[in-house]
Fold each of these.
Amino acid sequence: MNDFAYARARTWDEALSLYEPGAVYVAGGTDLLPNVKHRLVKPARVVAIGGIPGGIDLATELVIGATTPLQQVADSPVVRALVPPLAQAAQLVAGPQIRAMGTLGGNVLLDTRCLYYNQTEGWRTALGYCLKAEGTWCHVVGGPKTCVAAQSSDTVPVLLALGARLRLLGPSGRRELPIRDLYRFNGMDHLAIEKGELLTEIVVPRPPVAFRGSYQKLRTRDSIDFPQLGLAIAAELHGDTIGALEMVVGAANPQPKPVRGLEALVGQPLSPASIEAIADLVYKQTRPQGSVHGSEAWRRQMARVMARRGLEALGR
Amino acid sequence: MSSTCRLRVNGDELALAVPEHWTLLEALRYAAGLTGTKQGCDKGDCGACTVLVDGQPVLSCLTLAHDVRGEVTTIEGLATPEGPDPVQRAFDVSGALQCGFCQPGMILSARALLSRQPNPSGAEIREALSGNLCRCTGYTKIFEAVRLAANTSRQVPVRYGQPAQGFNVIGARGRKADAIKKATGEAIYADDIALPRMLHGKILRSPHAHARILRVDTAAALAMPGVHAVITGVDLPTPYCIIPWTPDETALAVGKVRYVGEGVAAVAAVDEDTANRAIAAIRVDYEPLPRVLDPRAAAEPGAPLVHDTDWKGRPRADNICKEVDLAFGDVEGELSRAAATVDAEFFYEGSTHAPIEPHCAVATWNADGALTVWSSTQVSHYLHRELAKVIGVHTEQVRVIQPVLGGAFGGKSEPFDLEFCVAALSRKAGRPVKILYTREEVFYAHRGRHPMHMHMRMGADASGKLTAVDNDVLIDGGAYHSFGLVTTYYAGQLLTGPVDFGTYHFRSRRVYTNKPCCGPKRGHGSVQPRFAFEIALDEIAAKLGLDPIEIRRRNAMVSGQRTVNGQLVPSTGLHACLDAVETASGWRQRHGKLGRGRGLGVATSMYISGTAYPIYPNEMPQSGVILRADRSGKITVFCGANDIGQGSDGMLAYIVAEETGVPPDAITVVSGDTELTPVDLGSYSSRVTFMCGIAAQEAGRAMAGKMRAAVATAWSVPVDEVRVGYGSLFHGERSMPAREALVLAEAALGTPLSTAGGYRTRKIGGDYRGGTIGASPAYSTTAHACEVAVDDETGIVRVEKVWAAHDCGRALNPQLVEGQIEGSVYMGYAEAIMEAHTFDERGLHSGPNLLDYRIPTSKECPDFFAQVVETIDPGGPYGAKEAGEGPLHPVIPAIANAIYDAVGVRLRRIPFTPDRVLQAIRGGVPC
């Protein structure tokens, strides 16, 4: 890694005060440090925020501190009871050590990933670099304009489907942002936050009593791997009738993808026919790009299968 | 920027001067000297660096040292004055440690699990260990160890099982000689060595797949403070190769580079950061040349030449580095008369060894000009010879020491650039130099499984008797020769048993391409054609309406038979292996009857136990053992063999214990040190148990002879009536502890006690050019059955169970044999399902790291059921044969055949990725 200075923050305000241009924040380090080792990020200063207490608090809403380790989210009785898909997604992130180190905030702010980007400097030199780092060409789409590195977080599709909000603290003060507005379709600059801005809390609204949901992850191995595709489902079921339905596809593009047109299904029964119609919507709107492992065509077909299976399981 | 880093480690308060950008892994290894924590990938992909922080497993390579806020426990901190942690002892006695390199991290993850859940379920164990990759064990014995530690009180006893009938030790289940050292972090691997004033070396690597080197300017690097030496290809121009006939490689590229990742220059500097900056400052001007990556294109006339000349300087006309064409009988005639035939193309994708320990070498020169190199090699002897040749000194000035080795699988069985570079840099700098490969460099060093395109034709008569096999193989060799001559022969020569056939033709061509050089990966050269053969055989069975096990029985070779290509197979246990997997898998009740989506498959193979001829011709023994006994009652075994985690040190101790009566734990093995140990050619071709075993047996018998003679004299009884038993020598009712017999013998002889034994090669092999390649003194036999579940909608194949019956002759230590079987099956499973060592159109590796190159975790790894079949071999030590490579072969075709049973499609290309399987199920052409 390049030679950087380390500073430890004990509070969010202290973290903000330690920030300077060229600095980066580090919590768990599991996303940042491989990128620093790859010389994709060359910080002058690293401001450590992992020591700022996180925590999971349920009042009118579920509030999770950004520095809460993913394993704590996965194991939390509150999260498991209230929003099982979030616990499920957190449990499916990488392997045990990374879940113990990595934080929910870090997973929300995860850098986009690409087979042409997350490589060593020597490898990228041989490639001739890419649009996201030091180059002028995206090797996935074969063009100079768009970077399609994939948003590869497991918890993000779930948080979107749940309508989560983010509490941010930055040089211009505190603000709240719906997580849906955080991501842009631009792998090089996919986060709509200011430089130096900190994510302090993730707020998940209390779901309705009739809530059902799930998160499914496509990957080669049952541990360690990033998703090849993720699918979050958040629904309300009144008996057999769909009261509400949100579905979000992850790891296909720089942006998590909320499926459009699902409101048309509200009020209908969850039947083989409606499930097929929904799965078709998901398939049509899922356009995975080759920035992650696995053929695009197959991953797209899997969106349909995962949608169908996820919906069928909701009814059970 | 360095500042004081306060760490609480294993109960100590440490104040270390550590740069602020260092990781906890660096602080522990370099500043605190706690080398039990291992570096496997340095990027959070493998788990080898796992430590506990406040009892929680974390990756020390992704933790900044200054950011640690809790109490750190490393593997060194787990033991107490009362002894090792029960988890450490359980790993020791269960055979869960092979190379041991992943185990400090694995043991700490297991410790954390048992601390929060004292009696975990199987699923909880798999989950808790799923961030720690192991490459040796297939996780099977690791799960056993965790269950053992969970179910016992404070200490797990060390014990040996019952020996085989009539033996003292042989046949007893027992621990590996060095396991507890590995479990406690005491074992010293190459990267754990730190010498005073040691420099760190780095190698600059080519970004081009094929380019002429116009100029290398090292001035800026050399001028940097802290840089002590820089070398380029011209400093080490002597070509070498593990096969002495085909030296086509230099330590660093001379004239041109032939693959992305080839070494061009190397530096030695005060630390790794400086060395990295220095190689970045070296300027190389290249003239890119047309590259050739596909072996089919490379074999065409007019293809760009990877090598313009051969090693004698003669211009080359093509990229064919070796071609073999051998025929035995009238294949075409038999094919035309056959009742059933198969004619199909197969492709076997390349894969790599991916040992968790990256290659590492350390060199130092003494004041008299003698060189010592510690290297993670499995061939110290060949490295010794090649180092002397390339460095330009006499072999007597070179000493090679193999420290504890963290996994190899064939990937460390020839010299590598780093070994020459540390020697040359160290000479130039006048200081010791270490080079540790990055994980990326391990992928470029490669020498892994060759991709092979195979055209297999097979014919059988109506009874299912195989009458003809035609095997045409195109081998993608990569940029250099490596073991290529042998690979090219093995691709045909090793296919001729344990299923027998009447006529045979094979043509095998290995071509150069602009990619990292392929070489011997576990099951060298023969895993690929075996894949094609066993699928074709299944197809023949289907065409004739025969059960897949039955067709193999009908063609089973018998002990003492010669193969169609003239190799004598002294013993084979195919029938017993087939019976075993048939019963274990419930084959008769279940094959073809499990319903759509679930299936059983079977396949078989045969493998050599060493090769009859050494790599360079000589009349000296292939293996030597010297024993030295001492008055304390201990025996030290000196042998050049390389223990690569498979347990050859333990095997040697067992045999010497068997012969002398001295218990295995009182025997110390010194191995793999060219200055202390007699030559053994190395750990390759599954030769060690057979050849070193015979040498050890001979030396042990000689030692026992001296002991028995002394006892006979003392007791005034005939020497041939004195027996060696476990721990003692006996005559009738009388007994004397072996340790006393050693004292008596030393007194009687008036000299220290020392004996020697050797393995001398017998002349064997077919009577034709190449007939000795693939000729082995003994052959193992294997049969696998496996059960798969295939998801029709996703194409995802889950291999649930593999029953592996392996005839290893006499199992000297069944626990270690099982470990070899399980590890082999794991590695084959991985090749079948997920691994692919592939390159893009630039010749760029598709992901030279352990995140993109996926190797199985504890979670999806199938259940392996190893069964040891003992067909006593007339030539092996106590009848033993190999166990480390043969059991890899059948699993890949067995999975393909099980997929056919499940969903009715034939897959002729690995890996069986879900998209390929789904395409095949939907009637597309399997790609």
Amino acid sequence: MSELLHTPAADLAGLIASGRASSREVTQAHLDRIEAVDAGVRAFLHVDGERALAAADAVDAKRSSGGQLGPLAGVPVAIKDIFCMSGAPTTAGSRILEGWRPPYNATVTQRVLDADLVVLGKTNLDEFAMGSSTENSGFFTTHNPWDLERIPGGSGGGSAAALASFEAPLALGTDTGGSIRQPASVTGTVGVKPTYGGTSRYGVVAMASSLDQPGPCGRTVLDTALLHQVIAGWDPLDSTSIDAPVPDVVAAARAADVKGMRLGVVKELGGEGYASGVEQRFREALDVLADAGAEIVEVSCPNFRYALGAYYLIMPSEVSSNLARFDAMRYGLRLGDDGTAGAEEVMARTRGAGFGAEVKRRIIIGTYALSSGYYDAYYGSAQKARTLIARDFERAFEKVDVLVSPTTPTTAFRIGERADDPLAMYAADLCTIPSNMAGNTAGSFPCGLAPEDGLPVGFQVMAPVLADDRVYRVGAALERQLADRWGGLLTDQLWARENGGAR
Amino acid sequence: MSVMAYDDVLAAFEPALGLEVHVELNTVSKMFCGCSTAFGSSPNTQTCPVCLGLPGALPVLNAKAVESVIRIGLALNCSIASWCRFARKNYFYPDMPKNFQTSQYDEPICFDGFMDVEVDGVSYRVEIERVHMEEDAGKLTHVGGATGRIQGADYSLLDYNRAGVPLMEIVTRPVRGTGAAAPQVARAYLTQMRELLRALGVSDVRMEQGSLRCDANVSLAPRGSELLGTRTETKNVNSLRSVERALTYEIQRQGEVLSSGGRVLQETRHWHEDGGHTSPGRSKEQAEDYRYFPEPDLVPIAPSRDWVEQLRGTLPEPPAERRRRLVAEWGFTELELRDVVGTGSLELIAETVAAGATAGSARKWWSGELARRANVSGVELDQVGITPAQVVQLQALIEAGTINDKLARQVIDGVLAGEGDPAAVVEARGLAVVSDDGALAEAVDAAIAANPDVVQRIRDGKLQAAGALIGQVMKAMRGKADAARVRELVLERLS
């Protein structure tokens, strides 16, 4: 039974398709696992076992009646609780949406259901995806399976922790400034932010519309690519989605070949503020890729230094507008409606109590940045910085196929360590934000454990717009080379630790 | 409050007008989702995640709305932007599902146009600053108060059927140099705008249903001054007539304020149709900051030149040209034309002619009797309660000798009272001319017998005296006689 938990999604799909395992068995194994470990990990906000098993049974019935099964049919998946799912609680990690059940599916949710994946439940996140640790969740903090005293990254810490604790073989995330990649990095898992417009945002509770991007998470590069293939592609319901063929990420993940590729190391993403173990494992990964035939060059992206500052103007500006709809008038929390209070007072009381401190901070910053007289200095300048960052990428991609860096400057920090220091918290996204600002694609892949603390380090690969396949090609090559050295995945070491070294 | 006599204001001040016209487009679906725009359905039945602003929902632009607005812009002689964006106008109000309105701000799709209008034979150019797209809000119904307004209400009900209906706003530049004609110019502009929008087929332009709304701005400057005065914006002007009345009132009110040494406050004012005056709206202590920024959920609109030229080819004949052509075809005199334009009856005459009446008879009814009745009851001519087809029928009854002009007015009474078509009214009210010579002859004999002195005068050759006898006969017949036939009978008997 436990072997199913440890099996990659691609292989689980094979077992189910061939009848060697049923989707019900696989789903039940994961539900049991959640039951056993989630009290400690706290990856899930909601689990609906009944619904999951019914979906699993439907896949098994489809198979036995000779129906066509997709490449991930019957495989369980955990969904970050920011994707609308019809009839299922969807909170975005906020008390203000507690109890709300959307009447519709996000496009990504719909595609996952149409592909016969089995939804286990909804995973925890920082409130409205604002944070790097899940400590800003309106409900509770998720713990890192590598060390339960540490953060699992954020905002998608729930999805990443579910993968690392073997509660789910696949998960969905969204990435606005690194919310897929940074959690992947600190949990030793894989996460990819597709090209902006590559996956639909329809039905994803918005944080910052021009930056948000749904993406796949997994323990292996191929699993992640298979999920990417399921969810990506043009959606007429999202005007910003791109009407172009999805790059063949699955083929790239299978190829795992970097021979002749030029990898640009971003000079500005390293040095002061980066943990020595992070830099060490990153350098070793570069050597591994060089051995596999890649050419490594150094590239300068001088305008990346503006990325964090510009991000913290554009993102809150959009937040201040996107979160205005949570006003108690139509859905969600409603406070102070005693029959005498006017609508304005009900709105104010509901928002005052329903939003957490970080959400309020960003609404206030954004409201200020957009206000008349300050717009040009703040929002306007930030947009110019954004253009400069995009130009740095363009110039770099004239010389190299992909850019690489550590995913995040440090390994997982301790729960509570940065809770009172927003700027230290924001620094976790230093390396991931530029790709959100420019709209290109990027992914994080495990590259070892830092010697000083034994915690996972992530290797970030950034590729041009609509070249998502390159991210997978490099990530898969790294995974293959390192697996040869380690005898498996990084998460296998966690599995072995838990199971006394036996596999 | 007291106001200054209109002529006295105009002797000292020059008004400047500004008009913002909001038009609901008649697209089948809403601006950013597929919901129906049909008017009058049960509350909240025409809604979806997008127009309810549910978490995660995203807008998709209605291409038909863009097409309509470009056609309007072209018809108003505007330039069409080759690239423009939507913006978010942020403010909290329960009728706004997202608490921002998706609108256009500094990048309107159409700009720099004009419309020429005529008042009493003088042509005025109204310059159009911009035409832009936006979405409508939901509808609030305040329950429990005496007035139906929010003050004093116990609670409010929300209907989001209207939320997201495509709106277009047409904004003029300040219109100067109209002098005393300012309110009439405003009315003529609005009348012609309505004609144009109707001819384009882009809106129902029903002011009473709110598919055409107007905010009327006016300011006064001392005569000869280059500068504009402080303006007020009057809302709730729901008919062509009330635009003219509201502006006349505001000019008189501002004149009084300025002449008595006061200062006009820049404010929004509310027009009261019944009292014929304006009152200040809720005072805004400071200007609202809408925190506009480009809408990140929509991609820029970049209409290709080819498409714009293709749309230009679909424009109807411009109203001014059409008017000149029709008037020439109909052979109206200059004076008759002024009556037609002044009463806003051109389109109705055209429809009546198209339905089979002669231009002369159509003009006679619409610019005469029907315009008078619309004015008396304070409604628009096209809302007076009779259709062009009914006017055709009315005229046919006269020409067939079934009724005379006087009876026709009673028939109109019946039609306006909702008693049906003219023929049905004639039938129901028994209004047909009595053509039975027996009954007529009796009445004629009775009149002759009762008026020997008149009879004598006629016999003496004063034939015009017959009028008195005819009048008596008509009275006896309660108007239901053909006057020509009565005259024949009278003269026959006395010859």
Amino acid sequence: MHRTATATIPADETLFEVRGLTRVEGEGSLRLRVRDGAVTEAHLEIFEAPRYFERLVVGRTGDEVLDIVARICGICPVAYQMSAVHAFESLFDVRVTPVVRAVRRLMYCAEWIESHALHVYLLHLPDFLGYPSVVEMAGDHRPAVVQGLELKRIGNELLAAIGGRPIHPVTVRVGGFSRLPSRTELAALRPGLERAVELAEATVDLVAGLTPPVLDRAMPLVALRPEGEYPMNEGRIVSSEGLDIAPSEWRTAFAERQVPWSNALQARTADGRAYLLGPAARIVLAGDRLGPRAAAALERLGGAGRIARNPHWSIAARAVELVEATTEALRIVDALAEFGPAASMVPWQPRAGVAAWSTEAPRGLLFHRYDIDAAGRVRSAQIVPPTSQNQAAIEADLEAFAPSVLDLPHEVATARFEQLIRSYDPCISCATHFLRLDVEEVTT
Amino acid sequence: MTALQPPSIRLLVCGNGDRGDDGAALAAVAGLLPTLPRTVLDRVEVRRCPQLDVTDLADLPDGVSAVVVDTAVGIAPGQVVVLPLRRVARSGDGPAPYSSHALPPQAAIRLAANIRGKLPQGSFVGVGGRSFAFGRPLSAPVRAAMPRFRRALEAELARLAER
């Protein structure tokens, strides 16, 4: 059900209502109220019905939870599985083998490759090149579209090799995997990953030629920061304002709250401020952990400072992370070739307590917390996806951006709002495809 | 010595066997393939695709036809349809994708057409579905339609194999 702009508004106000974001994973709209040239209200309204996953997992064991939470998202199921499995293993004091740890990181690389390739090429690039969607863009920019599809396919194939299928993988288990890929299967991935590195580098070249809309603002950034590697499954939660807590301690610094205009809970800092997660935050807060090729790519794209201050330039952050994920995947595949046959699981025993962990989904920090009984079954759950944490930042950035486009024709302003919303790669029910926005201006 | 001919049909089998009527295409193809005459079977490349993906159409060689077989919504449960892909591509409100993470079929076909420079040849063979719940069997109307669904697919494959 889409809302309509029927409310009576004062004569000195302008209402921009972006209704029924289409081709969106989930349902949402944008509502901007302007008075005397200043934004008085900027709401990302999410009216998709609640999905009740936090209730669905109650009474379930850890392994059952892994299969259930994967269903939250078709693009980032690995993220949901990884946050959950690390939470359970943290509580149960499970020490997985180095091979299992490496394969989990490889699995996350696969997800980043397919997710970032999808967003950069199929969702975000049409905005920069002036097309309503990739369908129209393909006619004039065939090589770019083919490049993006090839990169996405390599990510999907890598994930299928580890997880059994490219969407909603089935092999992740508490203590390891139900099945590890053989060395032969891993070796077969190598040519594809070599090609993926080439394509990721080409992505950087492509993005280097783009010009983002101007927006310069400061937003607190939050990401994981591990020792010695770029963040995925491990690390401490750090922020641009000096926060430094364990990945299980999210609730000590952040809190969810209900807002009247959204069915998704919004997360803010404990003192009520918006903050931003995702590739830009990771680049800024853990850019020194990038491998040499990704670090060079970041330099080519103007460095972390530009990414930190202009959310439109998140496409550059994703391009850099494509280089990181592809080179890291290749490194892991080569490293695994040195190992002999490895056990896919280690034994474990459940225990009562709180299982909590955060990992880095493609769109940012994903926090899971489970209250577990002595049999290892979930008594209650809290799942905090990146988009629920980014909502407030999106609204704040729309408010900051709006004055620069308010004087433009509606269709131009619409396109600018659209592009800004898309730059966060939001998952409303957990992701956004390209949007066709309908902006209505009402003056009385 | 027998000279093998390259496949002239790419059979794209869509759906999810875990989800009630969404498994109809899988069931139809599984039942049909062992019964196909060698002259047809040798011309068919079978690809399993949970949902229609542009990459399965974009690299379709010239002279090869795609047959997309799937459950459809928007038609009566159990109704069997055979449509040219060009007609599916033209529809403004085509069948809904199984996940909104995927392009709708008409958008996937149009995108493939723009990448290839021309529309992929071929057809869509579908059966109307009623229930897509997890762990459920085929619904009664779809079960009843399965012989017709298989015959329609068989006829389409035979027609394309003769070209």
